[in-house]
Amino acid sequence: MTYDFAARHYIYDMKRRRDIFTGIELASDKIRVVVASFQDQEQELSKPDSPLVIRGFAEVPSLKMLKDEPVTPNIVAEQVSQALTTAWNMAACEGLPGVLALVLSGNYIRPHFVKASVQLDEHEAISEEDYESAMRATYSEVENLQGDDDSQEVIPLPLVNHGFRLADGRMVFNPVGQYSSTLTAESCCFVADIARHEQVEAMIRDAMGGYQLDYVVYAPIAVASGVLQPTLSDEPQGLVIDLGAGMTSFAIPTKIGFVACEQLAVGMDHLANDLAIALTLEIGTARQIVEQLAQLRCTVVATHDGNARMVNVTEPGLNRRQRSFSADAIESILEVRLRELFQLVKNRLDEQGVYPWIGNEILLTGVGAALPRVAELAAQIFNRRVRMGLPYRVTGRPDFVLGPQHSTVLGLLRCACVEERLRVAQEAANDGGLLKKLKKFVDIMGW
Q1: 5-14, 37-46, 165-174 — which is least confidently predicted?
Q2: How far apart are CA 106 and CA 88, in angstroms?
Q3: The predicted structure's pLDDT at residue 438
Q4: What is the DSSP track for 285-345?
Q5: What is the pTM for the complete model shown?
Q6: Which among 367, 403, 376 has a CA at the least distance from the CA of 269?
Q7: Phi-psi category of 297—alpha, beta or left, where left has phi over 0 and alpha has psi -120 to 50?
Q8: How far apart are CA 156 and CA 216, in angstroms?
Q9: What is the 3-state secondary structure (H, E, C) of 174-228?
Q10: Which of 32, 193, 327, 442 has the fewest CB atoms within 10 Å around its CB?
């Protein structure tokens, strides 16, 4: 069975299956598609922290992706189409599933912080109306933003609430009830290179036969949503770092926003590149070494034991030449790169003034989270307890082997569920007021 996207268009328009969610992740190692629903069927639409039921999935190689961007869009579009067909067939979907979501990731996207202040009576407690006024002011700032130059534009990702500043400089995440002469709302929108962003959009349209996506989610937001359940606390939940193949995402989520939400153009592919250059290996061989570190009895922390442990490598080609390297040499190369990566994340958090909010425990996820002793290395840099973070409350198909590499795409599905519930609630209330939207958001998340 194959899907004719154009022939199915009328089915999609006439019967939108809003109980089924399809998530698409374009990563540098794999293109991942997951079709799922939420287990709680007592409500019209389940809450996003309900158990996620996997109905279908597919992973295909990212043949022409670099740093999560398509190098050859037509080839990537074919791969996406193949993955969608496989996942939908597995899920036995009749027609196109109702809610389509895409993770947006890449070095062409950067966060842009906006601030706006309102004057208050310092003798009166900050009210919800004051809160709403400050947020509306940041929305106006975003609407007026044109980017740094003509090649940049604000892309249609949801505005991320960052926090609030009081007149004395303190940052708070729920200003209601505080006293201050001013209230400054800090938010974050996302600016992208126009040409590169349009290339990704066109590629996805080609892959889906011209269908429009329902929701697009920035990768760090999806990652955090995949491994952290909604919180009741007004304080930040702590730092999540996704070690992807092409990009590294990091985020510090709060109840209604993010203290930090960003990506670095350094990923696990850089480990393989470093090995290939330092040891004069083919890049494919270097990638295999990184993927098979545990089997080779290597870690990402150098033991400095000289040639006590040797690793035998067979290079591809007709001759299939055998080469030997000390495990310590391999480990030393990997450790230098990962130390640099974690230090870059730490420096970015320091620059933004949010390092104190990283929490007592850091979660590592993504394809690099399974590298031997990577959590130990991160703990040395951040001086915090570090452990692997996995997607929570996932059930369904027994052939779906859950791992840290699925945090982004599964978090995407949870984000799409939040957005869908907001859409349903807004339509039911027929009210677009900002404050009521935020209240609905808190209610939807079960806070």
Answers
A1: 5-14
A2: 26
A3: 53
A4: HHHHHHHTTTTTT--SS----TTSSEEEEEPPSSS--EEEEEHHHHHHHHHHHHHHHHHHH
A5: 0.89
A6: 367
A7: left
A8: 8
A9: CCCCCCCCEEEEEEEEEEEEHHHHHHHHHHHHHHCCCCCCCEEEEHHHHHHHHHC
A10: 442
